[in-house]
Every structure is written in structure tokens, then in C-alpha cells.
Design a protein that fits this description.
Layout: H1 13-31, H2 39-49, H3 53-65, H4 67-75, H5 77-82, E1 98-102, E2 107-112, H6 121-124, H7 134-142, H8 144-150, E3 160-165, E4 171-175, H9 187-191, H10 196-200
Parallel strand pairs: 1-4, 2-3
Helix pairs in contact: 3-4, 7-8
């Protein structure tokens, strides 16, 4: 957890201990013959190279420059994915039914899974550690404006904050507002501005 997210900090040993538990479980599963030594690396490579926030960034960039595509993305995210040059499986595990909430000057959207850690893996990648933390899930639901401020997002009181409970049935993510100063930029240049946090609603996009 970066230190600039003080509301969701944890002991430095937490990730080290979690990694040790995962390694022990992996070793046990290999010993039992349930997986092979390459299984975990194969899955991780899949979500590092084929399914991740680079897909969401391409979708957002296309929506910023193509109003018809933006309308499709907001109406049917999975159908919009089919129009892109994406790997097969975008509507597979963790992305069966994805929906997109659009930020506007008057509405700011934030995603959260109040039950566990449901997340649109094909478009945003693997969820960050803090997203799964019960503290974040509880506090962003109870005091979203304060939490956003801790992430560095200061919103005027006139801006409505909407929370979207992403679940096993619907995986929500956010279409951020296009930043001022990005006029004339190519789709690739626009996509490079996007971060997973912006598409989760806990950050804004800047040039």
C-alpha cells in the first residue's frame, strides 16, 4: 500500500507473510498433483500480457474520440470489447458481464465490492491489495468523499458521488472524464494517460 493512502495502510510484513502463505499453498498443490510448477506463472502471465488495465485504457481512449463507440461501451461493455482487437476470453472469467459508469462534471463514480473483491479483470487486471481490504470496503461506502480525498481526489460539494457495488453478477468500472489539454492527442497517447485507479474512480486523469 503506497504511503499516500493512509486510511488503508498495513504493516510492512503483511505482503511478505501473504506471499509466504501463497508459496506454501502452491507447493502443497504441486505436491498433490493438482497443479504443475508452471500453472501459477502461466495464469499470472495471462493477466500481465493479455487481460489487464491496458485493455480498459484502450476502451476509454476510443470512447473519448468516438461518440458512437462511447454509446456502445456504456450500453454494452462486452459488445464494445468485441469491436476491439483484444484476445479471446474478454467475456470469460471475471468479465462475463461488465458495465461502465461514466464520470461527468456533476457525477463521480467509484467501484467497490462490499462482499469480497469482485473486479473486472479483463479490463482492469488483478485487483490491488487495498481494494480487497475490509477497511477500504467499509469506509468508501460510509464516507466516500473523505476516502477520495485521501486518494488525492478533491471534489466540489456539488458533485454527486455514486458507488457501484461490483459483484459476481455485474463487474463495474469507470469511464473517467477526458482531461483538459488532451485535444489533438492520438488514441495511443490518450490510452497512456489512463491508470487502473482512474478506471476505479479513486483517481482522475491528467495530461
Amino acid at each position: 500500500m503506497p504511503s499516500n493512502y493512509p486510511g488503508f495502510g498495513y504493516d510492512a510484513d503483511r505482503e511478505r507473510l501473504s506471499a509466504a502463505k501463497v508459496k506454501a499453498l502452491e507447493s502443497l498443490l504441486i505436491e498433490k498433483g493438482i497443479i504443475t510448477g508452471n500453472t501459477v506463472d502461466t495464469v499470472l502471465n495471462h493477466f500481465e500480457t493479455k487481460m489487464g488495465p491496458f485493455n480498459g485504457a484502450k476502451l476509454v481512449a476510443r470512447a473519448w474520440v468516438d461518440p458512437a463507440f462511447k454509446a456502445l461501451l456504456l450500453a454494452d461493455c462486452n459488445a464494445a470489447c468485441q469491436q476491439m482487437d483484444f484476445p479471446a476470453g474478454m467475456s470469460g472469467a471475471e468479465g462475463e458481464h461488465m458495465r461502465v459508469a461514466e464520470n461527468t462534471p456533476h457525477v463521480h463514480n467509484v467501484i467497490v465490492c462490499t462482499l469480497c473483491s469482485c473486479y473486472p479483470w479483463p479490463t482492469l487486471g488483478l485487483p490491488p491489495y487495498w481494494y480487497k481490504d475490509p477497511t477500504f470496503r467499509a469506509r468508501v461506502t460510509r464516507e466516500p468523499r473523505v476516502v477520495l480525498s485521501e486518494f488525492g481526489v478533491e471534489l466540489d460539494d456539488s458533485v454527486e458521488i455514486r458507488l457501484w457495488d461490483t459483484s459476481a453478477q455485474i463487474r463495474w468500472w469507470v469511464l473517467p472524464m477526458r482531461p483538459a489539454g488532451s485535444e489533438g492527442m492520438s488514441e495511443a497517447e490518450l490510452a497512456a494517460l489512463l491508470t487502473p485507479e482512474a478506471m476505479m474512480g479513486v483517481a482522475t486523469v491528467k495530461v
